[in-house]
């Protein structure tokens, strides 16, 4: 059976959503390998209750071909971004050397601060087997409930029985890696990454906000890379969809991608996408005008209320 999910056409001014038009869509994710190779995804049969498809991580240069392959559906670009990844086929030292000097210095500085707070050395714990992952889950879930990923987006490490079963099945197949960073005696950050073939996926991450000043997530990321280069099992680390300084800083490459809504050619869908396109153009023009007359700070205060 084809799965469906809720999606929305968001009318936004900056980070503020002023109107949301909801649609039921069929998710069509594009893998990192497919995005790098420019392969188009196959669209599954569209259930009667669905309004269309949401294609994520479509290579930007394949937009026209995907729209043509949809057979006349309404195409609307939801967002554009780079899908970042890190090449794990070399050595850890070569990887570090590939980062910018600012990134390298920042990594060393943050690691020293965490080590000092931990009594002189880093305390990073690795988890791989089903028994290890069972222990990891209880501790990481305790961190997740306090993270902004959980509170603002509902995207902390899940605590559901279904997730635990999937996690343990992946561990039994040796298709998951996870890490915890401790500061003193307290678990401070977690990273959970399932594998698909030779690619490890950046799926769940979070840190205790009590340790914000020490940047525990950045320190844990680099130590996880240290482990992965030493193991030599995986070829790539997939930072998945979306932008972010963390992803840009620690990646070695990226693919220009977009998320594409393909909607049934109904009058309501045409009206919604036309309205949103016009709204976005007005917002972009207003932003350009504000920047031209030097009122950026005032505009930010206005948007925040």
What is this structure, in a nutshell?
This protein has helices spanning about 30-35, 65-70, 90-100, 100-115, 130-145, 150-155, 160-170, 215-230, 245-250, 265-290, 295-305, and strands at about 5-15, 15-30, 50-60, 75-85, 125, 175-185, 185-195, 200, 205, 235-240, 255-265. It is globular, with a radius of gyration of 21 Å. It has eleven helices and eleven strands.
Search tags:
305 residues; globular; alpha+beta
Give the distance, in angstroms, between the N- and C-terminal Cα atoms.
45 Å
Beta percentage is 25-35%
Structural class: alpha+beta
* Count of individual helical segments: 11
General shape: globular
Main β-sheet description? 11 strands, mixed
What do the pLDDT scores average to? 89
Please explain how this structure is put together.
It is a single chain. The protein has 305 residues and is α+β, with helices and mostly antiparallel strands. Helix content is 42%, strand content 30%. Strands 1, 2, 3, 4, 5, 6, 7, 8, 9, 10 and 11 form an eleven-stranded mixed β-sheet that branches. The longest helix is centred in the C-terminal third of the chain and has 26 residues, at 267-292. The chain is globular. The mean pLDDT is 89.
